[in-house]
Design goal:
55% helix; single chain; alpha+beta; Ybab, Chain: A; 3-stranded antiparallel β-sheet; 16% strand; 113 residues
Length: 113
């Protein structure tokens, strides 16, 4: 491999890394929303896979059925995180043009977790 080709590859890799960092910052600002119980519980998550807010309708709060409320919250949180991960994966796919590149394919690598 010539030095020129190697230099071109290194420049492309550096550009991809810079674009990934920019995408990470943009993804942290984006949010997704998920609900459960017909909208009784609403969860908002960021592209950084952090829960931003949880809203619970008063009608679903029943001291005699705490388990149902816990299940609704859990379902909404899991769905919000799944949607946030999907959103980030779609953004990453656009950036890498659908290629699976070792070392950058997982969210843990994207957000340093």
């Amino acid at each position: 491999m010539s030095k020129k080709m190697l230099g071109d590859i290194m420049r492309q890799a550096q550009k991809l890394q810079e674009e990934m960092q920019k995408m990470q910052e943009e993804a942290k600002k984006k949010t997704v929303e998920a609900t459960s119980g017909g909208g009784m519980v609403t969860v908002v998550a960021s592209g950084a896979l952090e829960i931003i807010s949880i809203k619970i309708d008063r009608e679903v709060v029943n001291p005699d059925d705490v388990e149902m409320l816990q299940d609704l919250i859990l379902a909404a949180v899991n769905e919000a995180l799944r949607r946030a991960q999907e959103m980030v994966n779609e953004e990453m796919s656009k950036l890498t043009m659908g290629m699976q590149i070792p070392g950058i394919g997982g969210l843990g690598n994207i957000f340093g977790k």
